[in-house]
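Record type: ASSEMBLY
Status: queued
Input:
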Amino acid sequence: EVHLVESGGGLVKPGESLRLSCSASAFIFSDFGMTWVRQAPGKGLEWIASIVPSGTDKYYADSVQGRFTISRDNIKKSLFLQMNTLRVEDTAVYYCARDPCRSAKCYLNSWGQGTLVIVSS
Amino acid sequence: DIQMTQSPSSLSASIGDRVTITCQASQDINIYLNWYQQKSGKAPKLLIFDASHLDPGVPSRFSGSGSGTHFTFTINSLQPEDIATYYCQHYNHFPLSFGGGTKVEIK
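Status: finished
Output:
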């Protein structure tokens, strides 16, 4: 069974940085696009970043462009989200999700349980 | 960027009812539309991809239709376990985006 486990969330102050990780198992990680989606408390889903299987192409939402960096390590079967210059409005549960298309632009058919990031002074 | 408008934002229906949710895209997205179910405190789950294809293991009471800018998601015979929020999502091109969600409750 496909398994995705996020980690790295926590409480940080505005302007600080945080690095999220997503560990994958039970599928060939290097064959799949991967995506980060977040959900602010009581709000809907927001797509924030995607990466193709090779890691060469990356895509970002305007809300995080220039502050967040998505990356992956196919040997370690891990996905990352480096979040810099965090803002209060970045407070959310962050989910990693698997995309079966090599374009990383398809559908998200497996999701992790999410990790909570709180940005507060 | 493509905006996805879902309606209604919430609904209340009885067990056994047919429930319909619509999703409107701000521009033509062909059939590049997915539907997800999110139960309280849980991660989203893919139900339908490419507008009308049921993900394996998803009950057949769920269905989707549409193309272009107008899409419909239907639950035939609402069950207690269908209580959740449902989201549409386009993948015509980046940036991807989700609709605002429809919260389904039991009357």
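Annotation: Chain A has no helices and eleven strands.
Annotation: The interface with chain B takes residues 35, 37, 44-47, 50, 59-62, 95, 97, 105-109, 111-114 of chain A (CB under 8 Å).
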